[in-house]
Amino acid sequence: MKRNLLIGLLCCGILVLQFKLWFGEGGVPEWWHLKQELNQQQRENEELRARNQALQAEVRDLKTGLDAVEERARDDLGMIAEDEVFYQVIGSTTSETKEEGDQ
Asked: In this structure, is residue 2 part of a structural domain?
């Protein structure tokens, strides 16, 4: 009789522990959720690290050489040098090309 009672108490104890493991606070579902958040944060950190490296390289270029400054001025501000000639090519619109194709 005592043996059956002891076995029953041990089984109940195991069931309680399993319930806490699977459904309780700090259990498997919470662990899984935290693991997913950690993976997402690590991916975001890698993207930001790569972005920071690119920005640091650009800052170094801007501090050390005029080539980067000239490139930024050309791209962002549309500047040209004194001895250069600027050509602007204007393409035809789609309605004009349709009319020409129909003829």
From this structure: no
